[in-house]
Design brief:
Blueprint lengths: L1 H20 L10 E10 L4 E5 L5 H13 L13 E7 L9 E5 L4 E5 L2 H20 L4 E9 L5 E6 L8 H13 L4 E5 L1 E2 L2 E2 L8 H4 L20 H13 L3 E8 L4 H6 L30 H17 L4 E5 L6 H4 L2 H9 L5 H18 L3 E5 L12 E4 L5 H11 L2 E4 L27 H6 L15 E8 L7 H8 L2 H10 L7 H17 L13
Parallel strand pairs: 2-3, 3-5, 7-8, 7-16, 8-11, 11-12, 12-13, 13-14, 14-15, 15-16
Antiparallel strand pairs: 1-6, 4-5, 4-6, 9-10
Helix pairs in contact: 2-3, 4-6, 8-11
The protein binds ligand TNX.
């Protein structure tokens, strides 16, 4: 009897130990993960089998990955090839969801869509990397059933302030897709630069994309994306299930456009002659009282719509001082004609007209939320970018059924430093540590009651005033984007700061492999 007990205890201990001894370091943490008895011995080449043609990209990616690992070079015969099976399973209801099972004899990935399968592949790659990282050729047996908490999981780059070549955008997308991000928001126009070719208005790029340094930096900061390049990039991102959302910032942040076309009189006064080369908010904004402005906007939206297939179209709306409209006779006349009493109502009128163009080209508006706009458009998605406006955002969302993307400057502005560590050009910004990002729960953004209903997801903008190249963009993004990946994907009960920290070392190894110069979170090293 005692011997049986002792054996049982030993079995129990060894099985627990085997789980403890070999961990998986998946980010974002899956929503259901259960370890099972045993191991899958992976000391042979892995073959990826798939019957569904629509998973071809995912199959290829997994095969390339398996072939590139050291163990793949072992001699193979038909009998010692390991099989990974990808299966289409329509019973998985969430379009981004997937199931993954590892038994001592098999590895199986299931999803209803290519996107779900892509996420299954990302998870399996991280499981294999976890084993290799622990010098093991065995994968722990487990079952994963996973799907995201939020459907919008985004990052934003700002090539308007500092141009980033298209190859850099591709590198950025490759890395983020591995952490199950599915949106890249591109801030393409601003006071300091216009970065997309618009065929009807060539000067937007011959003039608007050329600028000497910023804030005293004398390095030329020229550059723009041709339409062909951008279409190719959008396709590249789509293959990694990242939707590219363009932004045409209106009516503020428009100095580059105004300076490119003085003859169109896009601003109310003739004050701007040069693309802005310092940061801050400009008072020169597009003029609501000039009809040519709306023709210009319609033309630009038309061309942009043909490049970006996304239904979502960001039209800015942030930081537009209305002083110029106050002093402009045609603007005030327009206000009277439409029986509007305040300039804020005129602001809402401006966006109603812009929305007519969006509707024409089958797009839906996205905005930065500003407090003094009395009424946004129907079918809007609004970006919360300051926690201080959270209560108003909630009220507006409730009243008009808006969807909300949480990008609060207190948790998710990745241009802000991660620590007070002497990084240049960021002294006025708040510090957002890795832990602070991890602590963010979008569903409680508004108050103590869960408000998930209105929230479509999260996004971290990497504003570009001080982000001069990809090197710095990666440095600001990682590892914080790992934390935000869990904020967007993982349900609260599965999120745990200590577990997250324990997964970082392996992820850092992977990031370095990919050429991502993340910032080591030295504040955590005690
Ligand atoms: C505010 S937040 C901006 C950007 C700046 C950023 C710098 C928002 C919608 N607008 O124009 O780049 O702060 O952190």
């Amino acid at each position: 009897m005692n011997r049986i007990k002792a054996t049982l205890l030993l079995v129990l201990l060894t099985s627990t130990l085997s789980v403890i001894a070999q961990d998986v370091f998946i980010i974002p943490e899956p929503n259901q993960l259960q370890y099972e008895e045993g191991k899958y011995q992976w000391n042979r080449p892995l073959k990826v089998l798939c019957e569904a043609a629509e998973f071809e990209n995912e199959q290829k990616e997994l095969k390339t990955f398996c072939d590139s690992t050291a163990l793949a070079n072992e001699k193979s015969t038909t009998s010692n090839v390991g099989i990974i099976k990808l299966t289409k399973d329509l019973s998985i209801k969430n379009a981004e969801g997937y199931e993954l099972e590892i038994t001592p004899r098999s590895i199986s990935l299931k999803a209803a869509t290519a996107q779900g399968m892509f996420y299954a592949v990302q998870t399996l790659k991280q499981i294999i990397q976890s084993s290799l990282y622990q010098h093991s050729s065995a994968l722990p047996c487990l079952r994963i059933k996973d799907q995201p908490r939020f459907s919008y999981r985004g990052l934003m780059l700002d090539p308007a302030r500092h141009f980033l070549p298209i190859e850099d955008l591709k590198k950025y997308v490759e890395v983020m897709a591995g952490y199950k991000y599915n949106k890249l928001h591109l801030h393409l126009t601003d006071d300091q630069g216009w970065r997309l070719e618009i065929k009807k208005y060539p000067k937007l790029t011959t003039i608007g994309s050329r600028r000497d340094g910023m804030n005293g930096d004398k390095t030329p900061r020229n550059g723009f994306y041709t339409q062909e390049e951008m279409k190719d990039f959008v396709q590249f991102a789509a293959e990694r299930h990242v939707e590219v959302i363009p932004e045409f910032d209106l009516p503020g942040h428009s100095v580059a456009a105004i300076a490119s076309y003085p003859e169109l009189k896009l601003s109310c006064a003739d004050t701007v002659t040069k693309v802005r080369n310092h940061e801050g908010v400009s008072k020169d904004i597009l003029c609501v009282g000039n009809d040519t402005v709306f023709t210009f906007i319609d033309d630009v939206i038309k061309e942009m719509s043909s490049i970006f297939p996304s239904k979502m179209f960001h039209i800015g709306g942030d930081e537009a001082p209305l002083d110029a409209w106050k002093n402009c006779a045609p603007c005030q006349a327009l206000k009277k004609e439409h029986h509007l009493t305040t300039d804020q109502e005129l602001f809402a009128y401006f966006f109603k007209r812009v929305n007519q163009s969006l509707t024409k080209y089958q797009k839906e508006p996205l905005f930065w939320y500003e407090l003094d706009v009395p009424e946004y458009l129907e079918n809007s998605t609004i970006f919360l970018w300051r926690m201080g406006s959270a209560a108003k955002v909630l009220a507006a969302a409730k009243k008009n059924n808006y969807e909300v993307i949480c990008s609060p400057g207190e948790y998710a502005y990745f241009d802000y430093p991660q620590w007070k560590d002497g990084l240049p050009n960021v002294d006025w910004m708040g510090v957002i540590t890795l832990q602070k990002v991890y602590q963010f729960d979008p569903a409680y953004t508004f108050n103590k009651k869960q408000q998930k209903k209105y929230i479509r997801g999260v996004e971290a903008p990497v504003w570009g005033e001080s982000v001069k190249d990809l090197f710095r963009a990666f440095y600001m993004t990682y590892p914080r984007a790992l934390a935000l990946a869990e904020v967007g994907w993982t349900e609260m009960p599965q999120r745990n700061w200590d577990t997250f920290k324990s997964k970082l070392d392996m992820q850092f190894n992977t990031l370095l492999h990919k050429g991502v110069n993340y910032r080591p979170p030295v504040e955590l090293y005690g």
